[in-house]
Design brief:
The chain is mainly alpha-helical. 71% of the residues lie in helices and 0% in strands. It has helices spanning 3-26, 31-50, 55-68, 83-104. Helix 1 packs across helix 2. The mean pLDDT is 84.
């Protein structure tokens, strides 16, 4: 793995952890209780914005086609899974493990 990708993954984890911590403090719950749900949101958001679909992508492809006269393949769906998606997926998996441990009762509920 290149250093640039590793640094991008670390920055993504820092942002995900900071936002998850902020959400956990806003709702007065534990960090690990929110981690699965924010992991799903980060992973789906990263997947959506890293894929070749979407209205903005089609708009830019149409503009380039109009300016250059070269018709691009707009109908083919491509996913570019970069370091941001990998970081989000790892964060999701860790959150999934904690969620399963919470639901099964291995991690006890928070005492007040």
């Amino acid at each position: 793995m290149r250093w640039k990708h590793f640094i991008m993954m670390v920055i993504a984890w820092i942002v995900e952890i900071a936002l998850t911590y902020w959400i956990a403090t806003m709702f007065s719950v534990r960090f690990i209780e929110v981690m699965f749900f924010t992991g799903v949101a980060f992973m789906l958001g990263t997947f959506y914005f890293s894929s070749s679909g979407g209205a903005m992508s089609r708009l830019y492809a149409s503009q380039v086609s109009a300016q250059t006269g070269i018709i691009h393949e707009r109908e083919r769906f491509q996913v570019k899974l970069g370091p941001m998606f990998k970081a989000s997926f790892i964060f999701f998996l860790i959150g999934l493990v904690f969620f399963i441990l919470l639901v099964t009762g291995i991690i006890p509920p928070q005492s007040m």
